[in-house]
Amino acid sequence: MADATLSDTYVAAIQHDRADVAPDATLVGVVRSPTGWFHAAVDENVPELGPPAALLDEINDVEEEFKMQGLCEEGAHNAAWDRVDFDDRYREHIDESPDARTAFESLCDRLESGESIALVCFENTDKKRCHRTILRDRLETQLADD
């Protein structure tokens, strides 16, 4: 990985100058369906590394159920994450989707060539779980194994 760094942050931290990323890091969004303002905050977006649409729909539906039962937004999000087995299903997506696998390998190559990368999504992981932390862990493991 030469002098490359790999980190992750959320878009609001970037917008408010609170992101803890290397100054030379390429801000790589990993959002399936980004908004225009998200594009403005990152250098590029790789939608193939966002969670699959069906998984996003399912977690959103379950999260709404939990909110209706009185859970706060963060609690509902994290409880829904567990109920839909988000962690394992997102890992499976990275492993089994040809487009996600290609995008993952491209990020590995870029890191191995010395490029610093910060993965960016919407969730503040101080409060909510997010797929980008799974992706960061997978990238770190892959690079350590190479």
Summarize it:
This protein is 54% helix and 11% strand. The chain is an alpha/beta fold and 146 residues long.
Description:
Helix 3 packs across helix 4 and helix 5 packs across helix 7. This protein has one domain. The model has no long low-confidence stretch (mean pLDDT 94). It has 146 residues and is of the alpha/beta class. The chain contains 7 helices and 4 strands; from the N terminus they run E-H-E-H-E-H-H-H-H-E-H. A 4-stranded parallel sheet has the order 1-4-2-3. It comes from Halosolutus amylolyticus. This is DUF488 family protein.
Give me the oligomer status: single chain
N-C termini distance: 10 Å
- The chain-level structural class is alpha/beta
Low-confidence stretches: none
Instruction: Encode the helix/strand succession as letters.
Output: EHEHEHHHHEH
| Structural domain count | 1
Strand residue content: 5-15%
What is the averaged pLDDT score?
94
Q: In angstroms, what is the radius of gyration?
A: 15 Å
**Outline:** globular
- Count of DSSP strands: 4
Helix count equals: 7
**Within the largest sheet, what's the order of strands?**
1-4-2-3
Q: Strands, helices and their partners?
A:
Blueprint: E1 6-10, H1 11-15, E2 26-29, H2 36-41, E3 44-45, H3 53-68, H4 73-83, H5 86-96, H6 98-112, E4 117-121, H7 131-145
Parallel strand pairs: 1-4, 2-3, 2-4
Helix pairs in contact: 3-4, 5-6, 5-7
